[in-house]
């Protein structure tokens, strides 16, 4: 019998499916629940167990992991008679890997404590590729003892794993991450349009730029998206729009000015308003092209 903790995984989307599969590969027993039957079938095919409800998934779990789109979804699966807090056993560890507001994480930890359930907020960065390759950056908020217990599990999912502070700290760092990523993608998109309109060989230009100070993980990951105009979602504009709302609101609460971030937040919002919300966030290129008079 395995001595590894039993895992319940709630939310099997673009990120959740490959992450849960990496835990299965690492030897963990994973029971999952999500709304889409095809995602449950995928989990079962990978060696996991599909559950028919949240209650069924979490009932015998030592660790419950959630990966859903936003704060409302976290609250929907956590609270209420059919939710995690009412059905997980006392002493279980709840790890929320969604990207949500810091306050939602703080409130969840407080409510869970009343049920004898420990909580870590542990959002990730690295996109679908990072999830598949198990090289995610994981930023964690919560108690040191709970982090220590969860660290072997995190090591099956990512490479950079850091306890950032108390509950909500992981979400605060993730908000900063999303600010940096959005501004970086926007800068890359503007450079691409500038280079193309100048008649420069785009591939050659991006290769040399990525080898110097302008190089970044964002450019490395998104270079082919720009070159091929391939905007199949690894991380959707809709979700980055949500995240930019989180960071601008959190910054306002602490009195931090985000002048460039505010502009990029509006550009993300405009792209979504034009019907591109389901595309990858590298589709910010389309917004720059429109502003530059290019037909898209």
UniProtKB/TrEMBL annotation:
Q: Where is each 3-hydroxyisobutyrate dehydrogenase-like NAD-binding domain found?
A: 168-287
A Gene Ontology molecular function term of the record: 2-hydroxy-3-oxopropionate reductase activity
The broad enzyme category this protein falls into is: oxidoreductase
Looking up Pfam families in the UniProt record yields: NAD_binding_11, NAD_binding_2
Signal sequence, renumbered to the chain = none
Q: Which ranges of the sequence are coiled-coil?
A: none
Q: Where are the transmembrane segments?
A: none
Q: Does the keyword Hydrolase apply?
A: no
Every copy of the 6-phosphogluconate dehydrogenase NADP-binding domain together lies at 6-165
Q: Enumerate the UniProt keywords alphabetically.
A: NAD, Oxidoreductase
EC number per UniProt: 1.1.1.60
Classification via PANTHER family: 3-HYDROXYISOBUTYRATE DEHYDROGENASE-LIKE 1, MITOCHONDRIAL-RELATED
List, alphabetically, the NCBIfam families matched.
tartro_sem_red
- What family name appears in the similarity comment? Belongs to the HIBADH-related family.
Q: What is this protein called?
A: 2-hydroxy-3-oxopropionate reductase
Q: Which organism is it from?
A: Streptomyces iakyrus
The upper taxonomy is: Bacteria, Bacillati, Actinomycetota, Actinomycetes, Kitasatosporales
